[in-house]
Specification:
Layout lengths: L5 E9 L3 E4 L12 H8 L3 E4 L6 H16 L8 E5 L10 H9 L5 E5 L5 H14 L6 E7 L10 H4 L5 E9 L5 E9 L7 E2 L11 H6 L5 E2 L1 H23 L8 E4 L4 H11 L10 H4 L6 H11 L8 E8 L3 E8 L1
Parallel strand pairs: 4-5, 4-6, 11-12
Antiparallel strand pairs: 1-7, 2-3, 6-7, 8-13, 9-10, 12-13
Helix pairs in contact: 2-3, 7-8
Bound molecules: acetyl coenzyme *A.
């Protein structure tokens, strides 16, 4: 089938009310410093879900903004795909709760588990459903409440992550606009490098597990870093090849926002100057599946993405999973 099939018709994002700066870690007993976090990651602050906020509420708030921008009402949605690693409940999927909150009465809804690559994977699943004629209008959300599954005693991870949601409405392509190329991969042999080893059905929660924190995120940072740089470079190459474009044809690169050093290495490999790279990791931290759709919505509203522009998205996450898409707006 010939691309483009699916185009981005509207975007939105939502973050929790509470902002936690690097300086705030001292007051919660985490031995770290603003200097260490900024130098190693580029992060200065992140948003943390509080009372009354949930993955469902953040996702629904982002979705309402995206639907308004797209001129789409909830009953018009055929499918809702929610990329997340931090669902409100393990059963049922949070996507069905979002469906109920929106009143998307006709939609099929499901969660997609690909960690930080959740939105890039979700966009490709949505495009496939549209190509097969199974859907005309699809809502793809990337959202996380990682603050609730992070080990707040582990400074190696707790300073990195933030909460938030980004939403995108896909409609059938017109005027050559839409997804021009797509790529996705995974490597499960490296699953242990970034994981929650307990809390699933293999090792259900016990008091001992709660005590040792193995139901929370653990990460071997250096190994993850090396793989992220390698895989995101491959994803850029593959997306450009697929679209038969070169870096000079790309108006903006929106990479997963995990660490400024990974973003810079990815841009360098792709041959993109930093002025053409969207960065907001300083303000949100690593929001995993939410990071790219939040960045896209900000970039759209700031006028950095306009009709006629070509944007490359590239993601990497636990699994490992990685992928990319090139989109004409
Ligand atoms: N504050 C102060 N010191 C710290 C902190 C902290 N928050 N965290 C670690 N340190 C210390 C370590 O203990 C270590 O000290 P030591 O040398 O005395 O043992 C030292 O800092 C260096 O630690 P490294 O882990 O080697 O630091 P590195 O430069 O690799 O940076 C980081 C760590 C930021 C985690 C980096 O490895 C990274 O960004 N990795 C990739 C993370 C990522 O991209 N994840 C994406 C996927 S996320 C997802 O899928 C959900």
């Amino acid at each position: 089938m010939k691309r483009p099939i699916a185009m981005i018709a509207g975007t939105g994002h939502a973050v929790p009310r509470k902002c936690l700066t690097n300086h705030d870690f001292a007051s919660i007993g985490v031995e770290t410093s603003d200097e260490w976090i900024v130098e190693r990651t580029g992060i200065r602050q992140r948003y943390i879900a509080g009372d009354g906020e949930s993955l469902t509420s953040l996702s629904a708030d982002a979705a309402r903004i995206a639907m308004k921008a797209a001129g789409v009402t909830a009953p018009e949605l055929d499918v809702i795909i929610l990329g997340t690693a931090s669902p409100d409940r393990l059963l049922p999927a949070t996507a069905v709760e979002v469906q109920a909150a929106l009143g998307a009465t006709r939609a099929a809804a499901f969660d997609l588990s690909a960690a930080c690559s959740g939105w890039v994977y979700g966009m490709q699943v949505a495009e496939g459903l549209m190509a097969m004629g199974n859907a005309e209008t699809v809502l793809v959300i990337g959202a996380e409440t990682l603050s609730r599954i992070v080990n707040w005693k582990d400074r190696n991870t707790c300073v990195l992550f933030g909460d938030g949601a980004g939403a995108t409405v896909l409609k059938r392509s017109t005027k050559g606009r839409g997804i021009l190329s797509a790529f996705m991969r995974s490597d499960g042999t490296l699953a242990d490098l970034l994981q929650r080893s307990a809390g699933g059905s293999l090792r259900p929660v016990t008091p001992e597990i709660i005590e040792d924190g193995s139901n929370c995120i653990s990460m071997q940072g250096r190994e993850v870093f090396k793989n992220a740089v390698r895989s995101m470079a491959e994803a850029c190459d593959r997306a450009l090849d697929g679209a038969k474009l070169s870096a000079a044809d790309i108006d903006l690169l929106i990479p997963h926002q995990a660490n400024i050093r990974i973003i810079e290495a990815t841009a360098k490999h792709a041959g993109m100057p930093l002025e053409k790279v969207y960065v907001n990791v300083d303000r949100y931290g690593n929001t995993s599946a939410a990071s790219i759709p939040i960045a896209l919505d900000e970039a759209m509203r700031a006028g950095r993405v306009k009709e006629g522009m070509t944007v490359m998205f590239v993601a990497f996450g636990a699994g490992f999973t990685w992928g990319s898409i090139v989109v004409k707006f």
